[in-house]
Amino acid sequence: MLAKVNIWVDIIATVMVAIALGFWGFQIVGNFVTGRFRRKFVGKEWPHHEEIVPPLPKILHGIHVASMIALGVSGLYLRYPFFAGGREIMKPIHFVAMYIVVINFALRLYYAYARDAKEFKISLREVLNMPKVLFYYSFIKKSYPHLAKYNVMQKMTYGVMFPSLMVIQAYTGFALMWPAVLLGWAGPYVGGVASAAAWARIVHFMVAITFIMFTLIHVCLSFIEDFPALFTFFGLARQEVHAEHAASEVTTSHAEPSTK
Q1: Which residues are bridge partners to 241 per DSSP?
Q2: Fewest CB atoms less than 10 Å from the CB: which of 14, 58, 186, 245?
Q3: How far apart are CA 116 and CA 120, in angstroms?
Q4: What distance in Å separates the CA atoms of residue 86 and residue 201, rounded to the nearest whole number?
Q5: For the segment 205-229, what is each residue's pLDDT rounded down to a tens digit?
Q6: pTM
Q7: Torsional sign, CA 236, 237, 242, 245
């Protein structure tokens, strides 16, 4: 049974990555056809920011990005070894990056909620505004109302889904290191600890693919919707601060919330 499940897991993972890449293509074509690219990259109609992003979240974000890249590359190699003799290198890289990303994510999450807890509250008005956000990204509407610092989908993704998935990912990752300790409870239900570890590995991989898919989508929207923020966030350009948001084509898809 596990062999068949793993085949389907590979198929589903391929489809998920294809969806993310298809989203890139859809956004690029849609922005060209609707003239949004011209207004943004030529007319400089980018979102306005009301405050300077402090150094700490930038540092934590950089560590998070580097760790996630290391985890993604090493994890994919451990499942699909694309060159010989790399397991001895990739496995310790994966474990070290796992510790770093868990600690860093906990610090980033604490910072986000300690500083911006009110920004993650989801109101009924924002829920009702969700179709307008989807219509904007589907190129059905030219804009949508700017209701808060983050739109409702960002709040659900970075404030609820990502932390939940990170807990699952951390638990299954550590369980694969210490299966007798962390999976002993599951052994009787699936035919032993070794079988439980095999199922944990499947869950771990699917969560990783989910992270990869949403990261690809996030990078796409960060590039298309607020390209200058990519430079200012990493200190490559000076951030301009405005008292109010721009009135045209307002969007809350910025690079900074990726770790929230």
Answers
A1: 49
A2: 14
A3: 7
A4: 19
A5: 999 999 999 999 988 988 898 888 7
A6: 0.83
A7: negative
